[in-house]
Specification:
62% of the residues lie in helices and 0% in strands. It is mainly alpha-helical.
């Protein structure tokens, strides 16, 4: 997990903004990953509150996948490209498009693990 999501701190929405900016993840995708409405996202962006436990769990799951991809590709740009490229195994969706659900995250994590071990389906 990144320093921004350390277990001792009460993470604020700024951790979401930092990571989404770093990986050029659009606002719509961030909403989908967090499972929030546009108005809620606006309030979070404006007030930078502490993330509620359910949002923190979703974002931590997302950050775990990004970290796994970064370790595999060893390059932020390649990680961005991979996360934004449609995959047949994901029903022709991008990894970013499926990261809003636990099932989608598990699928992406499995793909990354298989790639790390040279196993492709």
């Amino acid at each position: 997990m990144t320093q921004a999501l350390s277990k001792t701190a009460q993470p604020k929405y700024e951790v979401v903004k930092y990571t989404s900016d770093k990986y050029q993840i659009g606002r719509n995708t961030v909403r989908d990953i967090l499972g929030i409405s546009e108005s809620t996202q606006f309030r979070y962006e404006k007030n930078n509150p502490v993330l509620k436990p359910n949002l923190l769990d979703r974002w931590a799951r997302f950050e775990r996948v990004i970290q796994q991809a970064e370790e595999l590709f060893e390059d932020r740009v390649e990680t961005q490209r991979w996360l934004s490229t449609k995959k047949t195994v994901l029903g022709n969706k991008t990894p970013l498009e499926v990261l809003g659900t636990d099932f989608g995250c598990r699928q992406v994590e499995q793909m990354l693990m298989q790639a790390a071990y040279g196993v492709f389906s």
